[in-house]
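Data deposition worksheet. Section B asks for the primary sequence of the deposited chain exactly as it was used as input, without tags or linkers unless they were present during the calculation. Section C holds the resulting structure in token form. Section D is free text for depositor observations; keep each observation to a single sentence. Incomplete worksheets are returned to the depositor.
Section A, Depositor: J.P.
Section B:
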Amino acid sequence: MHDWDIKKLRILRTLDERGTVTATAEALMMTPSAVSQQLTNLARQLGVVLLEAQGRRVRLTDAAHLVLRHTEAVFAQLERADAELAGYLAGEAGEVRVGAFSTAVPALVVPAVAALRASHPGIEVRVREAEAAEAYELLSAGSVDLALSLAAHAPTARDARFTRIPLFADPLDVALPADHPLAGAPGLRLADLSGERWIFGGSGPWSEITRTACEGAGFVPEQAHSAAGWTAILAMVEAGMGVALVPRMAVTGRVYRVAVRVLEADRPARHVIAALRRGAEAGPAVARVLSALRTAAPT
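Section C:
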């Protein structure tokens, strides 16, 4: 029977995720030499070669990938054990750290936390605003217990480290200047706006989501301006500088001097999901937070 050292296996998994010994050391708050020494010891304990030199970097061997495949199942089971033990010890109490992208905080997380404070005051939710693309890094590093992300950002469904739970589809509406000729046009379609100047982010999910929606309607949007925040985007639309797709979650309950039109024929949407480390969903406190998020999600 080999000596399976959980701490050293965690270092190997982090190296696989981060790519270099230096990045692994930073992520785990260790020195690079300590990382190398622990991995050398692990290879000796298991009796296989785990790393090969590749120029100035290292590469994981096939044996290392075999070890990691089994390691993921072990870590998932340990997450379940942690979750069950937390439930046993704390009952309805516990701390859940939630990472959420900016528009999800006021629209989804705040109402969920408010409901939990009334129904389960023993559960403390700590919120961390983060880009949707960061969700899986934060989960993998153990910085959050549950992350709100977008389906467009999920790693492959075969990634054994995470469980993904669909929450809802957030419709995308189009924002036009209030005096735009099509602001009041009946049955407005995305294709009607193919010749417009568009405003959306330069990279990342919003660029992909806007381009994908427009291409689905048969055209490539001309990007006139680039911005990441909704305040900036809607200020430019208001000034007549272009049109933009906006998630309904971002504009609900706010007043802007723009025309926001529902695209009934196209029905573009972005898909909001909850992501967890596999096994963590068994924890009662996490399950309560998930339930509160589902209840708060717009129908």
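Section D:
The chain has ten helices and eleven strands.
The chain has a mean pLDDT of 89.
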